[in-house]
Design a protein that fits this description.
The chain is α/β, with parallel strands linked by helices. The chain contains eleven helices and twelve strands. Helix content is about 40%, strand content about 15%. α8 packs across α11 and α10 crosses α11.
């Protein structure tokens, strides 16, 4: 259902527009239009059972994790803000939906909110499907507000990651995400990097060119409406290739500890300068942790010949 909802939305909008343009909207179609568009603004809240539904995807995707080798339990979860950041984005990040089920199952104390492009939260039905996972928009103001009271899990590559995704390529966008690390530093968060092997293998991306016209336009519009791809069958576009997914969790990186290190290294710096230096240290430590998780788990995941590309 998840990957066909955008197509249902587009079909419904086309139907209503055609009825309106032909002067055949009528009372019934007008009622449908009101109900349909109200779904795009209807309030939502998290339903814990909805995350559990996606455990049903464990079997078809042969989901595995390295959680038996990595300790991710903070001593006092109530006092430490946690962020789980995942790579790669993939064409359609179905693996991020599965991640919500993994977090709910193994780290229920860390479950907070997910992040999605704002446009998805204005698509009827899609708003409800991802909203029940407790999903909010990706603006800086939204993230800052909700991190005050909740933990977060996010696919860090963003829209750029869609146009980097293709079978045979392992990539993570980190160096150009300083805004994220500044935000994590501001909230003194504990950041857990995760790499998902197989995420880029689910779709054949016909527009895998981030510097092309379509990629540039989508990043500017902050929506991925011009991505051309197919999964298992070229003539059944939204069905993915059911490849095994291995979630490699890295060692967590503590922003508060790194800020103290930045203070020791820059004793005469102002608070803002210390925060900036701490954010840079956080980015470097995060990158090292992600690379380490990738290298330690790529053989077991079946990608021993792959190298992680950091952008």
């Amino acid at each position: 259902l998840f990957w066909v909802i955008p197509f249902i939305s587009i079909t419904m909008l086309s139907f209503l527009y055609r009825a309106y343009s032909l002067g055949q909207l009528g009372a019934t179609n007008a009622t449908i239009a009101v109900v349909w568009f109200s779904l795009a603004f209807m309030p939502y809240k998290r339903w814990p059972w909805w995350s559990r539904v996606f455990r049903l995807w464990y079997e078809p995707f042969h989901v595995k994790t390295n959680l038996h080798t990595v300790n991710q339990s903070p001593p006092d979860p109530a006092l430490k803000r946690s962020i789980v950041a995942m790579h790669p984005h993939g064409v359609i990040p179905l693996h991020s939906i599965i991640m919500s089920a993994i977090i709910e199952q193994y780290f229920p104390h860390m479950y907070g909110f997910a992040v999605a492009a704002d446009v998805l939260l204005r698509l009827p039905l899609m708003r409800q499907v991802i909203g029940w996972l407790n999903t909010y928009g990706s603006t800086k103001q939204s993230l800052d507000k909700h991190l005050e009271t909740k933990n977060m899990f996010i696919t860090l590559d963003g829209i750029r990651g869609i146009f980097l995704a293709k079978p045979g390529r392992e990539v993570a966008v980190i160096n150009q995400r300083m805004g994220f690390f500044r935000l994590a530093m501001k909230h003194r968060a504990r950041v857990v990097p995760v790499y998902v092997f197989g995420a880029n293998e689910m779709w054949h991306n016909l527009t895998a060119d981030e510097n092309g016209l379509l990629g540039s336009l989508c990043r500017r519009l902050r929506m991925s409406i011009f991505c051309l791809f197919y999964g298992s069958f070229p003539w059944i576009l939204p069905v993915p290739r059911f490849v095994p997914l291995t979630y490699a969790f890295g060692e967590d990186v503590d922003a508060a500890v790194l800020r103290e290190q930045a203070m020791r290294e820059n004793p005469d710096a102002s608070a803002s300068e210390v925060d900036e230096a701490g954010a840079c240290l956080l980015r470097d430590a995060y990158r090292a942790s992600l690379i380490s998780a990738f290298e330690k788990n790529k053989h077991e995941a079946g990608y021993a010949d792959r190298t992680l590309e950091i952008l």
